[in-house]
Structures are given as structure tokens and as C-alpha cells.
Amino acid sequence: MRQIKREFELRDQEFQYIRDLVMTQTGIVVSENKQELIYSRLSKRVRALNLGGFDDYIDLLEDGRNKDEMVAFVNAITTNLTAFFREGHHFDYLRDHALPKIMERNRQSRKIRIWSAGCSTGEEAYSIAMVLAEKLGFDTWDWRILATDIDTDVLSSANSRIYSADRVTGIDAQRLQRWFRKGGGRNQGLVQIAKELNDRISFKQLNLVKPWPIKNEFDIIFCRNVVIYFDVPTQKRIFDGYARHLAGHGNLFIGHSESLHKVTNRFESLGHTVYKKRDS
């Protein structure tokens, strides 16, 4: 493998150590051809900490006393690509099929619980919240969304409710008017999501490859374009965990490039990467 010659040297053994640490901490498999990507993301941490190179950075991580830097390491590695109403057919299915069935099943409790796993900067969770608010309102149903991610930086961004205006292009005018407020003056070019949506969402840090501090049962779980970064044994553990936390006949939504084939038999495909939990 060729060595990277830039501001800092990233030796093969250092790259391998980082690959192993990423796997241990996040479950993400870093392929051998990602050396430049790793350099690009972590050299910023080396520079910010005024270290001499990657050897010093690895010493810092190995020391274990700087817990904040391990968090920063994970935040630097994880990928956060998302958009409002990404894979729009999922939100149509949620509105037209999944929610009516849940409303029938939960008509006595009038509670609905949804988990957005790997929520990144929050666009998915807020998209779900918009659908629920438009379908159910805020008064007669107790609906809540748990939105989790391993990256604390993106969770803070999501909880702020603030996005650049170019992030909401493509959302229809009625939704924009109802759920977004345009900034003025120093906030020109920014929009803020309505607080009433944020009030129904709990943004929490959670590492999918570590034990989950979750006791709730969910009616729906969104985990889209997340498990593609994990190996198959890790995917199986995660999907089996989702099955344990889904209510009977609950729905799982995954990304368009993902599949449960040869990973788990706990779900039945409903088409278009929507699944139903099988009877136990």
C-alpha cells in the first residue's frame, strides 16, 4: 500500500490501528482503499491538538484518559449524508399505510412510538414528525420520536432546529410555510423548524454496536443507509435487536441500497425496502 506524503505521515501500521479502532468503537468496516479518507478526516484532529503526527494522536487515544477525544474521533469518522424526505416513497407509505394500521391497533392507548436510528443532522426525524403532525395533529394522539446517532456533533446540530435554506429546496410550499421559519438579518439564508415538532423528538447519542439503553417498544423503526458500513455479523445483531424492540407487526424501513437477505429472517418484505416484523 502506498504511503501518504502530506503534512503528516500516516504509516501502514497506524492506518491499520485506526481501522481496528473504528471497528471496535463504531462497528464500521474501513476498507484498505480508504487511507486518504481517514487521513483527510483525522489530520484535522492532529492539527487541532497541536500534535506532531499520527503516532502522537494514536498515543493519545490509547492512553484512554481523554474521553472527549474518543468522542471527537468517532465524530470525525462517521459519515453524515441525509436530506429532508429522502427516499420519499417511505414517507408516502408511512402516511398512507403504516400509520392507519398503527392507529387501528393502538386506538385504546393512542400512543405511537417511532425510532430514527442513525438520524444524522435530523432531517429524517423532522420529516417523520411532519408526516405525523399532518396526519395526527398534536392533541388527540401521543406520538413521540426517538432520534439517535453515534455522532454528538450532528445531534447538537439537529436539536438546534436550524438549517441552511438550500437544505429545504424541494419541500412543497405548503409544508415550508407551515413548519419552517425564514431567518432575517444576520440569519439570512437560514431556516428554523417549528419548535412544536422538536418538542416531540428526543435526540440521544447511541452507538448501535454497543449495548442499547433502550427499554421501549416501537411501532416503527427507520434505519436507512446505516448498516451498509457494518459487516454481516454486526448487521445481524442490529436487525435482530430491532426485531426485539418492535411491536408485533411493526415496520422497519431501511435504505434503498440495503437488504435483509441472508442477514436475518425476523422480517417479511413489503416491497421498496419496507419490512414487517414476522410473528414470533
From TrEMBL:
InterPro entries: Bact_Chemotaxis_MeTrfase (IPR050903), Chemotaxis_MeTrfase_CheR (IPR026024), CheR_C (IPR022642), CheR_MeTrfase (IPR000780), CheR_N (IPR022641), CheR_N_sf (IPR036804), SAM-dependent_MTases_sf (IPR029063)
Binding sites annotated in the UniProt record for S-adenosyl-L-methionine: 80, 82, 86, 124, 149, 207-208, 224-225
Record field: catalytic activity: L-glutamyl-[protein] + S-adenosyl-L-methionine = [protein]-L-glutamate 5-O-methyl ester + S-adenosyl-L-homocysteine
GO molecular function, one term: protein-glutamate O-methyltransferase activity
Leading EC class: transferase
Name of the protein: Chemotaxis protein methyltransferase
Signal peptide stretch: none
EC number: 2.1.1.80
Superkingdom assignment: Bacteria
GO biological process, one term: methylation
Residues annotated as domain CheR-type methyltransferase: 3-280
Stated role: Methylation of the membrane-bound methyl-accepting chemotaxis proteins (MCP) to form gamma-glutamyl methyl ester residues in MCP.
SMART domains: MeTrc
